[in-house]
Amino acid sequence: MVASVLKARITLRLQLAPVCLLWLSVPYCAHADVLISGVDSKTRNNILAYLQLDDETCDAPEWRVQRLFSDAETEIREALEVVGFYNVEIEKKLEAGDTCWQASFAITPGQPVVLRTVSIEINTSGTQDTELESAARECALHSGNGTVNLT
Which residues of the chain are under the pLDDT cut of 50? Predict the structure, then answer.
């Protein structure tokens, strides 16, 4: 029994060896730097979630980097509008280095939109739904609120 277990382990290792060698032969593709300044870390993370350029590697074709860089301003604006910033100024720069490219975005978010009035109406056709009413009371939307909490 012990011999058959040892034989199975050796066979498994011999089968995995080519897979490991293949994995080690795959070239490492470094990600380029996308620098974002002017916003807090949570807002920065939200922007990076929208930004397709952040997914590109150093060896990405120049035409694709240029296209994604040109789309970046729209994506950054969308990411900031979600959290209440509509008057955004963005300075952007794309630089080609010796081994990789780098994109930088200096953001001035401006003042967030503030909710003047929040009115939530619940129509339950005459029946009382305490869970739904409780959820409406605990809703994060309140008069005077500015940006949406990203936590």
Answer: 5-6, 12, 19-28, 150-151
State residue 145's pLDDT score.
65
User: Do the domain assignments include residue 74?
Assistant: yes
On whether both 49 and 99 belong to a single domain, the answer is: yes
Burial (0-12, 13-18, 19+ Cβ within 10 Å), 145: middle
Q: What is the CA radius of gyration of the chain?
A: 26
**Number of folded domains in the chain?**
2
Range of the domain at 40: 33-108
* 57 close to 30: Cβ distance less than 8 angstroms: yes
In sequence order, which residues have a C-beta less than 8 Å from that of residue 113 and are 6 or more positions away? 84, 85, 86, 146
pLDDT at 45: 94
Task: Identify whether residues 38 and 102 lie together within a single domain.
Answer: yes
